[in-house]
Amino acid sequence: MVVASAMVAFQAATTLPGGVWQDDYKVDANGNPVKEPHMVGTSIMAHIQRMAYGQFMIFNPLAFLSSLSIILLLLSELSIKRGRWMWTQMVLMWLAITGQAITYFGALRNISPADMRGVLKDVTDVSVVCWLCLMGVVLMGNVVRLWHVQYGKICDSDERVDDGF
Fold first, then answer.
1. Cα separation of 9 and 93, whole Å?
2. DSSP of the chain, one letter per residue?
3. Most CB atoms closer than 10 Å: which of 101, 103, 134, 144?
């Protein structure tokens, strides 16, 4: 699952929404410099929708690097019986999934026709708010669980439970 997450983020970065310019455009037909030049292989989205491209370039690497970090932690075997490492992996996975969700919606907005962008914006805004609310509920549930494990449970020998924290 984590490897698939990393691959999705990698694929999104190498196949940008909107594609890349297929030609150089530095001068017009008369040889005059153009106002907004572009070069072959550069992102069309970066030229046309700078804000959306900036958001894409924040959240996609976040998803990719979070996924790679989880893979590294799993391979290092430090996290097998340590609560902190498991907590770290869980937070990194949340970042990876959230980064991918935001990147996905940004890509959808970019490739949609102009007359559909208003409806799509409303749908993606509601979806992102619902996602963030779900993340908040999961976070609170984990904080309560952590508090309960650390301070609420008493072993048979009247010692606190050591979950690695």
1. 13
2. -HHHHHHHHHHHHHS-TT-B-SS-EEE-TTSPEEEEEE-TTSBHHHHH-HHHHHHHHHHHHHHHHHHHHHHHHHHHTTTTT-HHHHHHHHHHHHHHHHHHHHHHHHHHHHHS-GGGHHHHHHHHHHHHHHHHHHHHHHHHHHHHHHHIIIII-B-TTS-B-----
3. 103
Q: Is residue 118 part of a domain?
A: yes
Q: State how far the Cα of 108 lies from the Cα of 17, in Å rounded to an integer.
A: 8
Q: Which amino acid is at 65?
A: L
Residue 41 structure tokens: 């292989």
Q: Is residue 27 included in any domain, yes or no?
A: no
User: Rounded distance, CA 26 to CA 139, Å?
Assistant: 50
User: Is 160 part of a structural domain of the chain?
Assistant: no
CA pair distance 152, 163, nearest whole angstrom:
12
* pTM (global) more than 0.70: no
Q: What is the pLDDT of residues 69-126, one digit of tens each?
A: 878 777 776 655 666 777 777 788 888 888 888 888 878 777 777 777 788 888 888 8
Question: Domain span at residue 110?
Answer: 2-20+37-152
Q: Is residue 105 part of a domain?
A: yes
